[in-house]
C-alpha cells in the first residue's frame, strides 16, 4: 500500500461524499493529510514535518517499532477472542494490576474505552457532549458537579480549602438526589480534566468526594483514558496525584493503552466485579483482550519502562511548564499555566481580572502554529485553553520550538490588540489601546500558589458563578 | 513473544484472579488454550489442531498473511485518527459503498460495531441480552417483534404468507406505540438472526416491515455484523436475500470486517447522515477509520475477491447444508436444517411434533465434538440450534469431517434415548423406548418447502404461541 493514492483534493472530495458530515477534520478550511509519523513527528504528503503536541493516543511515539513488531508478530500467530485461554491476556492483566493499588485487581478488556462520544448513556454523563445537542436535555439521573477549577471555578487559589468546598458541592448534589428519592450509583471524573480545560483538581478533593459518594452507597470511577500511563510524570496514574490514601473503585483506561491500536480496559475491585457478575449478565467483547491487543498493550508498557517515558514526562513536562510560565510573565493573554508532566494547559484571557476567555486568540494561535507546522489544540468550556498532551517522547527542544513560536504569535496578537502587561503599562507608549483596568495589578494567578484577592476579583468570581449556574 | 508463557493451570489461575468473572470461557470445565491459528484451524498449546466452525470474525481465515501484511505495513507507517485526511479511509469507504445499493453512500467508521452486549441502550434493544439480567425489565421504548422463524415461530412453513403475517405483527407494535402517544424511531433486525437461532426470515418480510416503519416515520436498520461480507454466498449482504427491491436506511457491519482487528462501520443514506449532522453533535471516534484499520479492511475485501470466498461460501455452504439434510433424514433429533451459504443452523428437537428443544443433547454434541477437536456452538432461545459460521475458507472436507462426527454422536445419543426415525419405527426392535407419537408421521419440516399440516401440529403451534406471549 502506497502512502498516498489520491491527490489531496480528491481525498477531500471522496471524504465529503462517503464520510459522515458529523465527522470533522482538523483545520477544516485546509485540512492536513498525514501519510506517515514517527515519534512526536507527523509528515504530510509533501514530506513536511509537523511537531505533534496533541496526539496523546500515540503515547510512546507514533509507529514505535517495538509496538509495531509486537502487534505484527502476534497477528501472524493468532488473533481471537477471550473465550479461549491465552497468556497475553492474563500477563497483561497482571502487568496492569502491578501499576495499581492492590485492591484494583480485576480487569475487563474492551476495545473502545469509556469514550463519551458515542452512546446515549455515556453522552448523558458528559456535559462536554450533551451541550452540543441542539435539543440538549440533561438526563434526570445525571447531576453535574462543579469543575474543581482553581483558576476560573467557583472556588479558586485564594480559597482557604477548595478541595472541601468542591467536594461539598458533590455532597449537595447527593442530598438533592436523595430528597427526590433517588439513589446514587457513582461519581465519575477524569483524574485531570482534559477536554474540560486541562483542569487539575486540588489534592484531597477525590478523597472527600469518595467519602460522600461511598456514604451514599455509590462508587468512585476515575477516568484515566486521557491522563494515565505515566503522563503526569510523578505517578503512573493521575488519580495518584491526589495522595497515597486515595483508591477509586473503578478505573477506566483507553487511548494511550495501545498506542493507537483500538483497545481499552476497565479495572475494578473484586467486590464490584462480583456484584456485576450477580447481575446475571455475561460480559463478552468480540475484540477486547484479544492476543494482538494484549501483545501491543504489553509492548507499550515495556517501552514506557525501557525508555523511562514517565521520567521524560516529568522532566520535559516541567521544562515546558516553566517555559509557559515565562510566557505568562511576558504576555497578558496568558492567564494561567497549569500542568502535571506532559499534561499541560495554558489558559488565555483577554482580561486577567474578569478572566474574559480569549477564545478567538486561542484559535488564532492554533491556526498560526499549524501554518508553522506545529499541531496544538485549544479546549475547555470556552475553548481558550492551549492543550499540550504530546507523545511521551516529546523533548526539551520540541518544547523550546513550540513555545518560541507561541511567544512570537502572542507578541503579534497583543500588538494588534494593544494589550500590554500591567506592570509595564507605565513604561509603554500610551498611544496603544488597552482594555485592562488598573485594578488588575497584583492579580496574576499562578498555579498552586494561594494569594490574597481584592474586591474586583471577588466580584468577577461571583459573576462567573452566576453565569455558570 | 513466545506462544506460551505459563502452564495452562497457571493461565487459568491468573484469569480467575485478574479477569472479570462475568467474562466466560468456552468449555468452562476444561477450557481450550489456543496459541496459534491458520485458515479454519486453531492449535492448542500441545499442537493439537481444532477445526473451527464458529469464528466468523476470522472471516477470510485466521492469521491471513495478506491481512497481517497490510496491517503491519500500515502500522509501521502511520496509525492516527480520522481528523487528519488519509486515503485509506476514503478508499475503504468507496470500496464498501461499491458493494451496497447506491443510496447507502455515507460511512461512519467505528471500532466496536453494533454489538449489543455492552451498553444499556443496546442491551435494551436486544432480548438476547436483557433476558439475561436478573431483574430484566424491557425498556418502555423498545417493542420486541416476533422472530420470523418458519420452523418454531407463530407462522410457519405451512402458513400461506408468513412474510406478511410477521410484518403485520410489527405493524401491530407500531399501532400500539402510537396509541400510547409514542413515535417510532427505527426497526432493527439482523438480516439473518444468528444468536436468535440461525433464523432465515421469509423473503419479502423486510420490504413489508420497511413500509410499515417508514409510514410511521421510522428507519429500517439492517444489522449485518454477523452475516455480511459474502457469508450468505449468493449475495455480499444478507439483506439482499430479501430481494433487489429492498434497501435498508442504515446497515451496521462489524466482526468479519477486519478479520479480528477491532473495527466496524455504520453505513447510511445522505438523508439520514444530514439529519444526524443537524442534531448538532459532532461524531468523533478515537480509533474508528484509522489508517491501520482501513488498510486491514481493504485487505479483507481483497482476499474475499481474490480467493472467491463468497463463491466458496455458496459451494461449501450448500454442500454442508445437504450433508446436514441427510442427517435430518436419518436422525430424529434433527428437526430442521436451514442455511444460506456458510451461515447454517441445525435445530435439534426431542419431538418433531411438539418441537421440544433438545437443549441438553445440543450441548452434549458440542462437548463431544470439542473432545474430537471440532469447535461448534449451540444457540437460539433454547440453545438447541447447532450454529455453523466458520471462516469462509471452510472446505468440503471440513464439512465431511464435522458432519461425520455429528452423525456418530447423534447415533450414540439416539441409541441411549431410544429415539428412532418415525418412518423406520415399524421395522425396529420394539423393545426400545420412544417418546414420539404416531401422529408425527409426515410432519417432517423441511426448510423452504410448504406442506399441509395435521391437527396435532396446529395444536402444538398454538401452544407454542401462548408460551411465547
TrEMBL record, chains A, B:
SUPFAM superfamilies (alphabetical): PLP-dependent transferases
Assembly mode: Homotetramer.
Superkingdom, natural source: Eukaryota
Protein name: Ethanolamine-phosphate phospho-lyase
Keyword Nucleotide-binding: no
EC number(s) recorded for this UniProt protein: 4.2.3.2
Record gene name: etnppl
Compartments, record wording: Mitochondrion
Bias (Polar residues) ranges: 457-469
Function recorded in the entry: Catalyzes the pyridoxal-phosphate-dependent breakdown of phosphoethanolamine, converting it to ammonia, inorganic phosphate and acetaldehyde.
Region (Disordered) location: 422-469
Amino acid at each position: 500500500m502506497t502512502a498516498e493514492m489520491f491527490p489531496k483534493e480528491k481525498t477531500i472530495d471522496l471524504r465529503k461524499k462517503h464520510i459522515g458530515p458529523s465527522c470533522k477534520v482538523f483545520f477544516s478550511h485546509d485540512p492536513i493529510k498525514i501519510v506517515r509519523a514517527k515519534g512526536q513527528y507527523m509528515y504530510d504528503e509533501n514530506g513536511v514535518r509537523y511537531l505533534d503536541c496533541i496526539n496523546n493516543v500515540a503515547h510512546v511515539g507514533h509507529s514505535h517499532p517495538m509496538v509495531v513488531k509486537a502487534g505484527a508478530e502476534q497477528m501472524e500467530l493468532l488473533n481471537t477472542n477471550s473465550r479461549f485461554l491465552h497468556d497475553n491476556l492474563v500477563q497483561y492483566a497482571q502487568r496492569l494490576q502491578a501499576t495499581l493499588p492492590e485492591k484494583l485487581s480485576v480487569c475487563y478488556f474492551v476495545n473502545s474505552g469509556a469514550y463519551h462520544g458515542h452512546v446515549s448513556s455515556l453522552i448523558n454523563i458528559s456535559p462536554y457532549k450533551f451541550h452540543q445537542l441542539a435539543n440538549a436535555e440533561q438526563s434526570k439521573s445525571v447531576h453535574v458537579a462543579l469543575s474543581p477549577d482553581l483558576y476560573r471555578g467557583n472556588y479558586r487559589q485564594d480559597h482557604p480549602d477548595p478541595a472541601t468546598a468542591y467536594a461539598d458541592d458533590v455532597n449537595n448534589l447527593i442530598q438533592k438526589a436523595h430528597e427526590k428519592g433517588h439513589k446514587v450509583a457513582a461519581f465519575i471524573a477524569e483524574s485531570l480534566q482534559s477536554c474540560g480545560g486541562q483542569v487539575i483538581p486540588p489534592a484531597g478533593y477525590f478523597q472527600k468526594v469518595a467519602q460522600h459518594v461511598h456514604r451514599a452507597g455509590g462508587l468512585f470511577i476515575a477516568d484515566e483514558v486521557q491522563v494515565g500511563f505515566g503522563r503526569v510524570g510523578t505517578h503512573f496514574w493521575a488519580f495518584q496525584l491526589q495522595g497515597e490514601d486515595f483508591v477509586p473503585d473503578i478505573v477506566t483506561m483507553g487511548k494511550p493503552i495501545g498506542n493507537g491500536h483500538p483497545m481499552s480496559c476497565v479495572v475494578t475491585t473484586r467486590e464490584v466485579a462480583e456484584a456485576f457478575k450477580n447481575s446475571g449478565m455475561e460480559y463478552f467483547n468480540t475484540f477486547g483482550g484479544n492476543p494482538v491487543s494484549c501483545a501491543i498493550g504489553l509492548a507499550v508498557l515495556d517501552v514506557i519502562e525501557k525508555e523511562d517515558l514517565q521520567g521524560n514526562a516529568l522532566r520535559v513536562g516541567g521544562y515546558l511548564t516553566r517555559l509557559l510560565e515565562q510566557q505568562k510573565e511576558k504576555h497578558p493573554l496568558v492567564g494561567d499555566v497549569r500542568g502535571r508532566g506532559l499534561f499541560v494547559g495554558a489558559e488565555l484571557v483577554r482580561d486577567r481580572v474578569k478572566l474574559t476567555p480569549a477564545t478567538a486568540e486561542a484559535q488564532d494561535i492554533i491556526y498560526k502554529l499549524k501554518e508553522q507546522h506545529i499541531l496544538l489544540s485549544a479546549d475547555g468550556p470556552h475553548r481558550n485553553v492551549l492543550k499540550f498532551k504530546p507523545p511521551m517522547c516529546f523533548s526539551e527542544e520540541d518544547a523550546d520550538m513550540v513555545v518560541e513560536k507561541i511567544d512570537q504569535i502572542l507578541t503579534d496578537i497583543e500588538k494588534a490588540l494593544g494589550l500590554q502587561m500591567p506592570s509595564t503599562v507605565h513604561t509603554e507608549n500610551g498611544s496603544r489601546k488597552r482594555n485592562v483596568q488598573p485594578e488588575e495589578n497584583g492579580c496574576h494567578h499562578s498555579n498552586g500558589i494561594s494569594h490574597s484577592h481584592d474586591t474586583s476579583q471577588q466580584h468577577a468570581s461571583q459573576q462567573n458563578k452566576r453565569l455558570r449556574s
